[in-house]
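SEVERITY: medium
COMPONENT: batch folding queue
REPORTER: lab tech (J.R.)

DESCRIPTION
The queue accepted two submissions in a row. Attaching both inputs and their returned structure tokens so the on-call engineer can compare them side by side.

ATTACHMENT 1
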Amino acid sequence: MTSSNTPTTPSWAEISLGAMEHNFKELQRLAKGSQVLPVVKANAYGHGLVPISRALIRAGAKFLAVAFVQEGVALRKEGLNCPILVLTPTLPAEIPSLLNNRLTPQVSSLEGAKALAWAARKMKVRNLVVHVKIDTGMGRVGVRASQALKEILAIQKLPGIKVEGVYTHLATADWSDPKYAWRQITLFKQALEKIKKQSGFVPSTHLANSAALITYYPQSKGTWVRPGIALYGVYPNTKMKNHAKLTPVMQVKARVLHAKTLEKGESVSYGRTYTAKKKIKVATLGIGYADGLLRSLSNKGYCLIKGKKVPLIGTVCMDMTMADVTNVPVVKAGDVATIFGRDGKAFLPVEKQAAYAGTISYELLCAVGERVPRIYT
């Protein structure tokens, strides 16, 4: 859905493609010679897989990364022909779809590579390009760093398989454990040096995610850098704001459905988790946990109405939630509430709303539901 007009739906998300392109160029500037490999998994972190991917291609992206085969297939169906890397191991049942859609698989084991090689031969696919994941400490998938040389040499010998890239993923580059991040970077470099020295093979590489690109660069330099959350204008850690100039891409809005007065002693919503201590004005908003407004924001979160920050009260419902608008003059049905984003001079960042919910901004962005229309500007 593309429009510059405010929609009539109870809630919506405003997506700035201009902000997305700005962030891509800012990250490309920070990369200093490496190419940006944008991560558009999980519906482009809730922003819309196809529109965001097209905007990134217009901005200069040559390569995209998704989590699962189905996401790559969706992009192919929309006519995107650039290389697409699948960042998780491919299930055997998915291999035909991966091959038919010319997607680039990651390989986390020799067994996985053998399954790809067998299917490629059967489907007469020659020189299937793969990227080998090295596990340097994330502990999810990938060949162990200590076994990387042996595994990669074996994978290279498989008929029909061409190892193009080698990569890893950093677990604590958001400053949660800097020493561990440095350890992972060091292990990756050591494994890469062994591969180059003992086999003469010089693969393409990528290890810098958003956090590493912003704060551990150029130590985490590779052929590509692989940012995700930073593309969408959100910092992995708010302390990183001085290191990059990012612009938020998404704002989530909702309309006031109903305005009423709550008398002292009266309660609101399920479980009576909020009881008015005095007479207050309440606005009921057309957004709930089915739309991505996390239930953990009950009696904790905030929104902006007419440029004022007001608290969410009562239990967040499936379709509605309530706000105390006592300090906002003349609130009526149809008025706009900002769940995160800007309202005039007021700004409620998604990082702040996530903190109120006791989670991370990634979850709030990805949680925005299907019935919330995305308005692209």
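ATTACHMENT 2
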Amino acid sequence: MNHAPPVSSPDAEAAPPDDTVLWIHPVLCELGLPIRTPRGHWHRDAGSASLRMEAPSPDQPLPSGRMLRLNLIHICDAARRANGVSLDLGADASALAERMGAAGKTAELIDQMHRMMASKITVSWGGGPDVPVFDARSRPRGDLPEWRPKIRLSAKFLAALASHAVGLDSRIVRTLGDSPMALDAYAWIRQSLGGAAPDSMPTAGWDELLARFGSPSQNAASFRALFEPALRMVFDADPSIEIAVDDEGVSIRHARGEAEPAPEERPAAGSPEAPPSEPPAPPAPSAAAAPPPAPRAIPPAVAQPAAAPPAAAPAAAAPPAADRITEDSICLPRDATGLSQCLWLRRGHGAEQVLVGVTPGTRLDPERLTILAVEPMILQVSGGLHQGDFDRVSAWIMANRDLIDDFWDDRISTFQEVRLRLRKAPAPGWR
């Protein structure tokens, strides 16, 4: 992935209010810290960023795990807000642990803080020199006290932090606080999207992600098995992002809001993924649960012919007739959902059981139709999907439940609204 240059604040639409933002150095977003405890020396280099930690002796344990990440997030945020190298952590370590969302973990916090302050930690980015995180005067000269209320950052690290900090939502950090890899994944996503256009989709391959967040003992497959659940946690915690995972890697983007879907994401006319220009007339359904006749696929945006402006524009124009949903069922093509099948939404006409249809193509073939009931849990009513396909479709249903319910209850009248509210399927196996 070609990361955008670090920016001074997260994307305006995705950034949380300032009272909930936590600021962090971009290198700590691009590179994962150790999860298990290394000894003596540890380093990571990926892209143009590097991160190094060196203990006073080869057998001394270095900091690691979730508390190292929470400590550095808190220190970076406090330093940026105070704009000073000298930080007062407070006389009460237990109070700090509670503010960090780690109440009851005071002993772990103190231990990791001791290891961190005893080590030499440096970062570099953009081909620049190594910059120490902490002022050398902060490193202990003898036995450490039980708790050190004051620490000092290096002036160069503070300068970079002041101009290039990445904003994290404190509520999401608290939610993910028990998972070091989920914290890494969240920080990486926020940094990657911070300078990205609303309709862009940064992508990183598994080898690149392994270099940034894995360990030397892992291969891409074993790393993926651990990183996907972390991405799932981030996806569940942060509704402002969308994540797609496949064998090539991970793609991320801002969740669809008011912006029109990017034209390149729509299928070209005549392609296998393109919705039919005229909706097929399906045979009469053989089961009560089957969608009603005359389903339609979501069409691409319709170019309107040029016309002279009216003498007086109406206060609110009705949607174009071509965009109104006039049938009881619509087909969501594969490019719109990120699935390998087509999904069918239908009107409920007062029925309580919400249903979703699944077909391998854009034509409604009753012999190849699977009907899923959404409540009280997702179940196959008719047809059949392999377990992997069922898991993917179920994950899509969970991510789009509000859209499904509103269409079922006839609260959506245009294809435009469907397009704007669609979220693509998360990673395989997500529920």
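NOTES FROM REPORTER
The two ends are 27 Å apart (CA to CA).
No errors were logged for either attachment.
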